[in-house]
Amino acid sequence: MTKVISTINLKGGVGKTQMTVALAEFLAMEHNKRVLLIDLDPQTNATVMLIDENAWLKKDQKGETLLQLFKDKLDRTSIFDINKAIVKEVSNIGVGIKNLDLLPSSLGLIEIQDSLPLISAGRFHVTSPVIILKEAISTVLYQYDFVLIDCPPNLGIITLNGLYISDYYLIPCIPDILSTYGIPQILGRVRSFKKEAKIGIKPLGIIISMFRAQSRTHKSITPELKHRANLSQTDPKWVPRIFETIIPLTVRTADAADFSASVNTLKQKYGYGTVYNDYENLTKEFLSYV
Ligand SMILES: Nc1ncnc2c1ncn2[C@@H]1O[C@H](COP(=O)(O)OP(=O)(O)OP(=O)(O)O)[C@@H](O)[C@H]1O
Ligand SMILES: [Mg+2]
Fold first, then answer.
1. Residue 257's domain is classified under what CATH number?
2. Category of 274 on φ-ψ map: left (φ > 0), alpha (ψ -120 to 50) or beta
3. What are the average pLDDT values for consecutive 10-residue runs of the chain, which has 290 residues?
4. Ligand 1: nearest atom to the Cα of 251
5. Does residue 280 fall inside a structural domain?
6. Is residue 234 part of a domain?
7. Does ligand 1 have an atom closer than 6 angstroms to the CB of 253?
8. Number of C-alpha atoms within 13 angstroms, CB side, residue 255?
C-alpha cells in the first residue's frame, strides 16, 4: 500500500524542504523504495533541488507542472497530464536516482493561489478545491511505496490538497521558543480539517531540525518537547512523538541543496561524516513508524 506523508509547519525556514528531499533520496537510494516527491510549494525549492532549472522552465511553459493542474480548474480546461508532468529519476546524484520521481511545482502558483477558493461545483460535476490533487494522482499512486509532499509554510488551499491525500504529516521544527510556539496551532488546524473533510490523516511526529548544540535554548527545549509528547492527548500542551534522530545545523547540509554539484552517491552529497548518518538514521526511524 502506498503511504502518503506531508511535511508541514506554519513557520517558514525550519528545514522542511531540505529534510523532505533528503528523506526521499534516502528512501529511494538506500532502502530501494519507490518514491514520488510532490512539490506543493510555489517557492519551488524542492523542484530546483531535484531537477535542472532550464528543463523545469520548459516543462512549466508546456503546462507540465502543478500550475496547469490548478489552472485547468479555474479555466475549465483539461490540459494537465499527470504522466507527462512527473519527472522520472530525479536528483543531482549521478544521472538521477532510479526510484525517485518528482511532480514539479511552479512559481506561477503564487499568482493563482488566491483564486483557488473560488473553484466550485461545475455544471455537470462537483469539484471541491481540496480534491484537485487527489483526482489527478489517483491513477499513478499505486506505482509508489511512498509519496512525500513538501508543503508551503501555510494551510492554504494548495496545502489542504496535500493533507487531503495524506496518511500522515511530519512537523520539522527548530527547537526554539518561536518555532515551537505554533505547534499546537498546526495540530488544532489539521484536526479541524480532518474532521470537516472526513479524512484519516495522523501526525507521524516532530523532527528537531537545525539543532545547535551550543544553544542553551535548543538544549533545554528538546527534552521539554519530549516531556510534552508523554502528556495525555487531551492536554493542551500535548505534542506528537519527537523523533529520536535530531538534524543538526551544518554548512554541509545547506551546500547539499545545490543541484549543479557533481556527486555520485549520497555519501558524497551529504559528506562521509555525521550528516549522512543523521539522514540515514532518520530514514530508518521513519520506516519504523509508517
Ligand atoms: N540542517 C541544516 N543545516 C544547515 N542549513 C540547513 C539545514 N536545513 C536546511 N538548511 C538551509 O536553511 C534554509 C531553509 O531550509 P528549507 O528551505 O529546507 O526550509 P523550509 O522550512 O522548507 O522553508 P520554507 O518555509 O520557506 O519552505 C535553506 O537555505 C536550507 O538549505
Ligand atoms: Mg520549503
1. 3.40.50.300
2. alpha
3. 97 96 97 98 96 95 97 93 98 94 97 84 65 95 98 95 98 94 95 96 98 95 95 94 96 86 90 88 98
4. 4
5. yes
6. no
7. yes
8. 11
160, 200 Cβ separation under 8 angstroms: no
Q: Which residues contact residue 57 at a Cβ distance below 8 angstroms, ignoring those fewer than 6 apart?
A: none
Number of structural domains (the chain) is 1
Entry field: residues in the chain: 290
Do 162 and 151 form a contact (C-beta atoms < 8 A)? yes
Of ligand 1's listed atoms, the one at least distance from the Cα of 247 is 1
Is 237 contained in some domain? Answer: no
pLDDT per position as a tens digit, 214-265: 999 999 999 999 999 999 999 999 999 999 999 999 988 888 888 888 899 9
> 132: CA distance to ligand 1 center in Å?
28
pTM of the model: 0.96
Contact between 158 and 192 under an 8 Å Cβ cutoff? The reply is: no
| Coil vs helix vs strand at 10 | coil
- Residue 256 Cα: closest atom of ligand 1: 31
> Ligand 1: does its nearest atom lie under 6 Å from the Cβ of 247?
yes
What's the domain range around 130?
3-215+242-289
Whose grid coordinates read 497530464?
81
**C-alpha–C-alpha distance, residues 16 and 140, integer Å:** 25
Helix (H/G/I), strand (E/B), else coil: 103:
strand
